[in-house]
Amino acid sequence: MTQHPTSTQPIISPPDAEARRAARPVVCYEVAGLPPVDMALYRTAAQSMHKVAEVRVPPRDARAFEVRAGQFFRITGVEGPQVGDLNLWNAADFSERFYSGKTRQLHASHVTTGHRLWSNMPGLRPMATITHDTLGWYGWDADGAGVHDVIGTRCDPYTNHMLKGVDYHYCCHSNLTRALVEFTGMPPASAETHVHDVLNVFMCTGFTHDTHQYFMKASPVRPGDYIEFFAEMDLLGALSACPGGDCSASHSDDKTPCHPLLVEVFQPAPDALAGWRPPAPSGYGGGHGL
Ligand SMILES: [Zn+2]
Predict the structure, then answer these.
(1) Ligand 1 centroid – CA 132 distance (Å)
(2) What is the DSSP pairing of strand 199-207 with strand 261-267?
(3) Picking from 1-15, 56-70, 210-224, 262-276, which range would have the lowest pLDDT averaged per residue?
(4) Distance CA 147, CA 112 (A)
(5) CA-CA distance, 70 to 274, in Å (whole number)?
(6) Dist. CA 254 → ligand 1 center (Å)
(7) Which of 33, 62, 82, 139 has its CA 20 to 30 A from that of 217?
(8) Which residue, among 134, 137, 126, 117, has the nearest Cα to 75 in the 3D structure?
(9) Strands 199-207 and 84-90: what pairing?
(10) Contact in structure between 263 and 55 (CB atoms under 8 Å)
(11) 203 CA to middle of ligand 1, Å?
(12) What is the pLDDT of residues 175-198, one digit of tens each?
């Protein structure tokens, strides 16, 4: 019998508690059924590419950028260790956007080369494929942490106000909102509704062993490290250089050193993509048994 500190009644372990705990874990999704990823095609295409655009994201701020289907884009650490919060939208229809939760379920809590960034329902298709990750060597450390997480949502002023009682306007949620307003001209209240759970680029996170709480630790990213994506559709992206800097101590304040991030867009030779087709939306018809 145990007493949870906030439970109103004692919690009684059943006699077969250990047997119940020993049930075999089963990976939830039959991921072997995912559409195959032709990494050889991407690799060949990347060899022919040249840079066509770049955007520098200032510290504690965000910038939006466009990538056409069939182009590559890279997010690179410059000047110092820095975490980035990435949003992606279908450039032709903002209601289709990156789906962090499903990406986590289909791949893992942290993503790397060969994983894809999936869109929300009803599209549910790859928006981008990760084609290179210079931090791919990191794997899982002794704390259970990895890099590039799809666990965390994004730092935001509402949670910050609730926990600290102060207004801070340069959380990633606000930075992404401002970037979308500046790029599209849409009203701030509309832009905010389009901001969604992010890919935490370069962020090193996990769950504590004892209480399973979300933790962060100093990002292993160094200037020159990058993560590279292939755009499977026309994309609007927005990237925030998180006020947490390398996320080794605190965030949502002006104390932590922060650095810029660089976004570069690359165009491969057209014939290098001869075997590539943009992913179609989900084949499910949306009947829902109605
Ligand atoms: Zn942030």
Answers:
(1) 23
(2) unpaired
(3) 1-15
(4) 8
(5) 10
(6) 12
(7) 62
(8) 134
(9) antiparallel
(10) yes
(11) 10
(12) 999 999 999 999 999 999 999 999
